[in-house]
Amino acid sequence: MPVSARTAPSSKLPAERIAPTESAEHAEHRDPHEAPEAADPHAPQDATDRQLQPPERPEPHSSPRSRRAANARALTQALFEELSSLEPGTPEHARVRAALIEVNLPLVRYAAARFRSRNEPMEDVVQVGTIGLINAIDRFDPMRGVQFPTFAMPTVVGEIKRYFRDNVRTVHVPRRLHELWVQVSGAIEDLTVMHGRSPTTSEIADRLKLTEDEVLACLEAGRAYHATSLEAAQEGDGAPGLLDRLGYEDPALTGVEHRDLVRHLLVQLPERERRILLLRYFGNLTQSQISSELGVSQMHVSRLLSRSFARLRSANRLET
Q: In CATH terms, is domain 175-223 a member of 1.10.230.10?
């Protein structure tokens, strides 16, 4: 029976290829308001149906940084819950506390990055911020419903600011000027953005309701972090140090006070005696030359000089 052997496979067609086909007679008698039968979502589809369906849109994924932050917050919360159930001083309590410190070290590095412009080693700033982090962990109460980063950030930043105020400055300034410097620096940033240029001293003073002298004192205090050695080389190759630019000792410096004193005493003498002194000691004339120029005797010139010297000595306020 070769014919039946060739037709046999057609009777074994897959059921899913026949089931979706609806007869014309059934379609004519179906109610038009009748909802069509819902397709089985688990039923297999052929290649044509799969091509007609739109591609699935991938679900949006969060960035790795946000995932790390979320994981750190969840881990911090779990560690605080575990820490609250442990007895302080036990090895388990110390282990969980150390884990909390390690998990939240990125918070310290973030706070320390705000102070990069202070020219201080970043390792030292991070160590100081870690002390603030430890203090925040010891004081934090998870029952208050506050996130730990929100609670810890002011403590960490405050510890770093205290370090700069008390230890970094070799030139100590009054606390009031240091606090005003924070306001002045903020006003400078705001006015720079507002005007598109560096603000003047009067503009800063008007904004903060301060005098210009107070603003200038704050600006000087804000830059007074370190005392520079006079012998330290300046920036640039071959630039002289501060000591080389201070000038040399003037050999005539000691005579400045004497000249000022003589000028003060000469104005107290009569005009003729003052002229004789000027001719004798500033014009380098002899007594005979002075007598010839003034038309008097040399003896009279000598007596006038002696009387002038007596007056100058009596009026000399430096004479002991």
A: no
